[in-house]
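User: Can you recover a sequence for this backbone? Please restate the input before giving your answer.

Assistant: Of course. Working from this structure:
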């Protein structure tokens, strides 16, 4: 099964410039021309909605571009109207195969075997702000594992850090609309100086899923869901944006710019799959992980809008990655307890599929209560860099994802 990437670009001019010169071979390829007649590109029409004027075209590298018909020539617009409405292909259910959700197997030592590359890579995208990026201290984790004998599956028989040959650990980061940088592209193992929840997530997923797994983290710190990470289709905070996601407050920054950047970076990785997962031929976006909320807590109007924006965030991600069946797991902030009255905390639990408030999230969205798993400190204080907090939250998120996948 092929998942095509839906690109969000900052402006129509940037979109046309980005796709100029990319050629698509095949019987259904068409040469498209920009409205001013200065640029052309070739692509296959995949979707067109006459009511909105939005066009979807697939390029030679498998990327899907979405843009307004206003950017096209009169001849192209006439062609689209002749075609009428064209439905985009919809991704089907995951082909990950059998899911082993037995708790005693989720955190057992890795058998050392590589993945079955005949199956699509199961991609899990990690999003959020600084604690998803990670501030847990690796040096402290080493003492916890090797001296206190916690998280024994992180070590191999020789006492070295386990290297998973079936789970890929990829991390990229950008600031808003700027270029993204790769920080990790390796088999999953303990490395570097700091960590997020990815190790607690990746190890149980690798044990549970009978297919290659990629943990793909695309995020940066100090971002609010109701501003920087505002998803497409959201109204913004307090309804004060004239149109959804319209630049409002900062000249070179706009509502949703970080959402666009994080999605763009992740899609770029997936468009170049073999670079990030050797020998991989196909992928499926199987799930999303989200740990965020600190910045939204600091501004009343952001906190007020958090729940509606979180609902739209989940829906937008599934649409933009063409993964309507992808599961979604989020974690609360560790300092918040049930009954605290914090609106961000309440929103995190409101979307939990077990809650029943949003019937469409039943069986596909889960919330992890982080307070009992946190060993002190706050989200803004990065839990004092305690790696056990990050491992505990990661394990709980990974296990929650496995439970959703089993359903």
């Amino acid at each position: 099964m092929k998942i095509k990437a839906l690109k969000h670009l900052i402006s129509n001019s940037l979109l046309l410039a980005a796709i100029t010169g990319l050629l698509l071979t095949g019987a259904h390829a068409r040469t498209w021309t920009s409205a001013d007649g200065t640029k052309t590109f070739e692509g296959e029409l995949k979707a067109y909605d006459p009511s909105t004027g939005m066009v979807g075209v697939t390029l030679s590298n498998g990327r899907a571009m979405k843009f307004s018909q206003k950017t096209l020539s009169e001849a192209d617009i006439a062609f689209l109207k002749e075609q009428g409405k064209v439905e985009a292909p919809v991704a089907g259910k995951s082909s990950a195969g059998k899911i082993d959700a037995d708790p005693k197997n989720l955190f057992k030592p890795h058998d050392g075997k590589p993945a079955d590359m005949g199956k699509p890579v199961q991609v899990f995208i990690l999003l959020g702000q600084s604690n998803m990026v990670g501030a847990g201290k690796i040096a402290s984790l080493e003492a916890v594992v090797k001296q206190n004998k916690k998280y024994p599956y992180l070590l191999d028989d020789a006492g070295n850090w386990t290297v998973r040959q079936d789970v890929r650990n990829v991390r990229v980061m950008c600031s808003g609309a700027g270029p993204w940088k790769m920080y990790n592209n390796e088999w999953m193992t303990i490395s570097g100086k700091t960590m997020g929840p990815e190790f607690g997530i990746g190890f149980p997923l690798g044990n549970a899923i009978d297919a290659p797994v990629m943990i793909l983290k695309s995020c940066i710190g100090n971002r609010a869901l109701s501003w920087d990470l505002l998803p497409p289709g959201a109204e913004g905070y307090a309804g004060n944006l004239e149109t959804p996601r319209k630049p409002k407050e900062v000249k070179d920054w706009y509502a949703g710019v970080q959402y666009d950047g994080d999605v763009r970076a992740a899609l770029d990785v997936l468009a170049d799959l073999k670079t990030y997962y050797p020998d991989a031929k196909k992928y499926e976006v199987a799930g999303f992980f989200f740990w965020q909320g600190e910045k939204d807590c600091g501004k009343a109007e952001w906190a007020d809008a958090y729940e509606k924006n979180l609902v739209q965030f989940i829906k937008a991600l599934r649409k933009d990655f063409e993964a309507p069946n992808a599961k979604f797991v989020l974690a609360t902030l560790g300092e918040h307890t049930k009954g605290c009255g914090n609106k961000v905390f309440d929103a995190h639990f409101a979307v939990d599929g077990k809650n029943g408030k949003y019937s469409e999230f039943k069986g596909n969205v889960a919330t992890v209560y982080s307070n009992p798993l946190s060993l002190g400190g706050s989200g803004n204080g990065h839990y004092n860099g305690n790696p056990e907090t990050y491992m505990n939250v990661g394990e709980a998120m990974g296990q929650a994802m496995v439970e959703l996948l089993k359903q």
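That completes the design. The two ends are 20 Å apart (CA to CA).
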